[in-house]
Amino acid sequence: MIEMIDFWLLAALLLLAALSFVWWPVLMQRRQLPVKVSRRDLNVQAFESQIADLGVELQAGRVEQAQYDALKTELERNLLGDVAEQKGAQTSQTTHKGLSVTAILLSVVVLGGGLGLYLKLGSSDTLQRMAEQQSFAQKLSQLAPEQRLAFLEKQSADNPQRTDILYALTNVYFQQGREAETKNTYDRLLAAVGEEPSLLAEYAQTVFYMNGNRMSAEVTQLAERVLRVQPRNVTALGLLGIDAFEQGRYGDAIAAWQAALDTAPDAQGADALRQGINRAQQLLGEQPEPAAGAKLTLLVSLDKTLTGKAQPEQRVFVLARAITGPKMPLAVKRLKVKDLPAEVILTDAMAMTAELKLSSFDEVEVLARVSSSGQPIAQTGDLQGSFRPVNVSGEQATIKLVIDQIVE
Fold first, then answer.
1. Alpha-carbon distance 149 to 308, whole Å?
2. Cis link prior to 341 (omega < 30° from 0)?
3. Residue 373's pLDDT is what?
4. CB under 8 A, 24+ apart: contacts of 115-121
5. Which residues, in sequence order, are bridge partners of residue 366?
6. pLDDT at 364 over 60
7. 386: which strand partners?
8. Which of these ranges, 264-273, 285-294, 323-332, has the smallest mean pLDDT?
9. Which residues make beta-bridge pairs with 262?
10. How far lies 400's CA from each of 68, 300, 318, 341, 348, in Å?
11. Which of 56, 64, 375, 396 has its CA 20 to 30 A from that of 406?
12. Three-state SS at 373
């Protein structure tokens, strides 16, 4: 109730301010208007009296004819000036009336527009929902931890469409270690909002925590669901990297964690990702060279005409992706402009997921991009070069990949 009173008070103040802008010029002009005095009859009477006095003076011989004519002309000119002044006052009054009419019309527009905006937004229950959510959050914060579960369960039963209540309920279930209820409530949330990537990623991470910080088939499936909607989701990539590391697929772990770092190099947990990559690289060096798997050798260079458009420290992403099918990179290598030209080898070990790797496709496209933003997603102004099709299964010579285009 307090929030609604505050809203109406604010709305009234805003309307008052708007109307003051409309009426202020009218009030100021009214103060500047001359006082309306009707003196037409007085001027005419004074003129006639003065003309009569001049006639008497002329007849008495005290004024010559030339003086009489000059004085009469002057009196006539003064009379005409008075009439013109009165017309100017009338014109000013007419202008003031027109401005008043305009102000009235603008006031109607302001009040009508405010009412229309409220009918469109305020009466659409938006304000009511905001007030309900604020009241709910305030009441929840005032409850003792042991009281919150019963309160939330009752609120959820009474308001099954309220996703904010469901979300709060997942946190309470998780804190109390009620695994089945936590998962069930997350499923209800996703059914209500759809495959929302941040919620899916949080669900996967919650299941990972409930599983003792260990991966499981369920966590992997949830993380892969996230990547189908948002291929560069940092949480999902981190989880899949853990899954690959636990299974001894250190190349896959490096690829996933590196993709997460490329997407958000300064995010919380970035240092842990770097440490994981370093450890995976150490373990990868201790493994025997894989006997099989696809491999593409590229010679990546920057066209001379674009040399001036790239800085030495800018990132270069070299990748392979399917020509038809998912656009998620099958293998990724990161360089800097100062490293070019460079030989790059893309292999199955650089795949982001076990299902999407070079050997999963017969033909791919290879691409190299100088990123102006430092991110792998193409943006206007990036420099790029590509080559297609590349037969993955056939014998391959070194592919010359020249960065010679500007992304528009």
1. 62
2. yes
3. 83
4. 118/11
5. 320, 387
6. yes
7. 367
8. 285-294
9. none
10. 112, 6, 12, 10, 20
11. 396
12. coil
CATH fold group of domain 295-406: Immunoglobulin-like (2.60.40)
CA distance 48 to 178: 109
Distance CA 214, CA 216 (A): 7
How is domain 146-286 classified at the CATH fold level? 1.25.40
Separation CA 164–CA 183 (nearest Å): 16
User: Does 367 score more than 90 pLDDT?
Assistant: yes
**Backbone phi and psi for residue 381, each to the nearest 5 degrees, phi listed first:** 100, -15
Token pair of 174, please?
Answer: 């998780």
pLDDT (tens digit, 9 = 90+) per residue, 156-215?
Answer: 888 888 888 898 899 889 888 899 999 999 999 999 999 999 999 999 999 999 988 888
What does the block give as tokens for 370? 């100088």
List the structure tokens of 389: 């099709």
Q: How confident is the model at residue 33 (pLDDT cuts 50, 70, 90)?
A: very low
For the cut 80, the answer to whether the pLDDT of residue 48 exceeds it is no
- CB within 8 A of 387, min separation 6: which ones? 365, 366, 367, 399, 400, 401
Cβ(190)–Cβ(200) under 8 Å?
Answer: yes
Q: pLDDT band at 114, cuts 50/70/90?
A: low
Render 193-257 in DSSP notation, one character per residue.
H-S-HHHHHHHHHHHHHHTTS---HHHHHHHHHHHHH-TT-HHHHHHHHHHHHHTT-HHHHHHHH
> How many residues are there in the chain?
408
Q: If we measure between CA atoms, which residue out of 332, 266, 276 comes closest to residue 300?
A: 332
Quick check: 374 and 266 in contact, CB under 8 A? Answer: no
| pTM recorded for the entire structure | 0.46
Residues 6+ apart with CB under 8 A from 364: 296, 320, 321, 322, 323, 330, 358, 388, 389, 390, 392
How far from the centroid of its chain's Cα atoms is residue 140's Cα? 30
Q: Are 398 and 375 in contact (CB under 8 A)?
A: no
Q: Does residue 290 have a cis peptide bond before it, meaning omega lies within 30 degrees of 0?
A: no
Distance CA 384, CA 300 (A): 11
Residue 30 has pLDDT above 60, yes or no: no
* Cβ 184 vs Cβ 174: under 8 Å: no
Would you put residue 203 in left (φ > 0), alpha (ψ -120 to 50) or beta?
alpha
Which of 215, 220, 223, 288 is closest to 250 using CA atoms? 288
